[in-house]
Amino acid sequence: MNKEQLKKTLRPLIKECIKEVIFEEGILSGIISEVVKGTGGQRIVETRTQPTYEKPQIDHEAHQRKLKEHRRKMLDSIGTEAYNGVDLFEGTAPLSNRDSGRSSAPAGSGALDGVAPNDPGVDLSSFGMSSAIWSKLAKG
User: Fold this and answer.
1) CA-to-CA distance for 80 and 100, rounded, in angstroms?
2) Does residue 22 form part of some domain?
3) Which of 11, 71, 89, 108 is paired with 63 by a 20 to 30 Å CA distance?
């Protein structure tokens, strides 16, 4: 009998013997009770909570002060004499959240992506609903 044949014969017998000892003679319950005693009888309970997002509170006045300070620093770094003391940022507004990349939607994903939120758009009031233009457009 070679080694492989011996393994095929003995393996199922050993497996069956181990199952008998562990389950039928109660050794498994003894092992479990010893482990529980070793932990001091304390139960370990793991709880997980879902993190919640809280919108940060924005101090708008502080934000405006920070923007003005940033503009002042930009002008100082350029040098006031370089542009004869002209404020290059006068009348400008910061980019909207979508333009600055802080939006949750990827850039280029919306029909009005890149359009300022305060843009008035195109005035369509001259095209009345009963206008001949609309009927021509509807007919093609």
Assistant:
1) 27
2) yes
3) 108
